[in-house]
Design goal:
The chain is α+β, with helices and mostly antiparallel strands. Helix content is 48%, strand content 24%. A hairpin with a 6-residue loop joins strand 3 (151-158) and strand 4 (165-178). Helix 1 packs across helix 3 (33-45), helix 2 crosses helix 3 and helix 5 packs antiparallel against helix 6. It holds the Pfam family HTH_11.
């Protein structure tokens, strides 16, 4: 570390209320004891009221109100930072190592009571998320750095079918975490349009000498939602969907990204949505299926018919499965 970094580290260590010898400080920061003395001399010259107590229980400490002044972060701010780091780490945040170092410094430069409170709060929250492998973190780091520097990437992307992949130039404008997955939003030089790509389907990224300027008003969040939600300017007909259910079921539906954006009205255990035809015949039936008898579809009949077809097909599938198992057992 530079002298300035050492001086700041020593200052925070002493501000925590601890009395420390020069050797203890040197061991903590992994620097020479003479460096500690030089840094303390510089701090004193800058006005920091550092006192040196001699004797068997001696050491350096800070005098008066300077030691009692509040830390850079109060207790709630420290708690919030630790909680945020837990969420970020579990979602696959690409700079986890740096985040852990930052939290480590936060803990290092606190007194025993503050550290105890931080540990208690950090153990009281957990995030359930599929494990993120190092390869994904590396891709996210490359994408984020390229987005910040305006550097075009050569991207090899899997189209989801075995053996099918496409190489394209990609200007990453930003990365988004949504529903357990990371997406990269930006300009696809192959298709000549702004697109979203699942990061876990990226097979490789290479930097290029090409550069780009990200649009000033670009929002990766808006682009992702815009591709998922019905296009307001589309001529595709909209269909009224009326669902009757317990309030907690309607709450879940209303919080969903698709249903929440298409809610027309809601009252007395009944919700009215207006959905596009393509969603109604493809995505919506499979989303509603797990609710089973917990909801009643009042309209349209086409949605009820689609659910009936799906459940009949599933019943036949499991009947065949059961027949095959019975034959094997026989």
């Amino acid at each position: 570390m530079s002298k300035a970094d050492n001086m700041l580290s020593i200052l925070w260590m002493l501000r925590s209320g601890k009395k420390m010898t020069a050797q203890q400080i040197a061991d903590e920061l992994e620097i020479h004891v003479r460096t500690v003395y030089r840094c303390i001399d510089s701090l004193c010259a800058s006005g920091a009221p550092i006192i040196a107590d001699s004797g068997p229980n001696g050491g350096f400490r800070i005098l008066g109100p300077f030691a009692e002044s509040p830390l850079m972060f109060d207790a709630d701010e420290q708690k919030a930072l630790v909680h945020a780091s837990i969420f970020a780490k579990e979602t696959g945040y690409p700079f986890t190592d740096a985040l852990e170092r930052a939290i480590g410094k936060l803990k290092l430069y606190t007194n025993e009571e503050q550290l105890h409170q931080i540990e208690r709060h950090s153990s009281g929250i957990a995030v359930l998320q599929p494990p993120v492998h190092d390869g994904l973190r590396l891709l996210l780091q490359t994408l984020e750095n390229a987005a910040a520097q305006g550097q075009t990437l050569k991207m090899t992307y899997s189209k989801g079918r075995e053996g099918a992949s496409v190489v394209r130039g990609f200007d990453p404008y930003g990365i988004i975490h949504w529903k357990g997955h990371w997406y990269a939003a930006g300009f696809c030089r192959l298709r000549q349009e702004i697109r979203n790509f699942r990061v876990d389907r990226i097979l490789g990224l290479e930097t290029t000498d090409l550069v780009f300027e990200r649009p000033v008003d670009f929002s990766a969040r808006d682009v992702l939602l815009g591709n998922l939600l019905p296009d307001p300017g589309s001529t595709e007909p909209l269909v009224d969907v009326v669902i009757q259910a317990h309030e907690h079921v309607l709450n879940e539906l209303s919080q969903h990204w698709l249903f929440g954006h298409t809610l027309v009205s809601r009252h007395d255990g009944e919700a009215h949505f207006r959905l596009d035809t393509s969603s109604l015949t493809s995505y919506v039936p499979y989303f509603l299926l797990p609710y089973g008898k917990a909801l009643t579809i009042l309209e349209p009949a086409s949605l009820v018919l689609k659910l009936s077809e799906i459940t009949t097909s599933l019943a036949l599938h499991y009947e065949r499965m059961l027949t095959g198992m019975t034959k094997k057992e026989g």
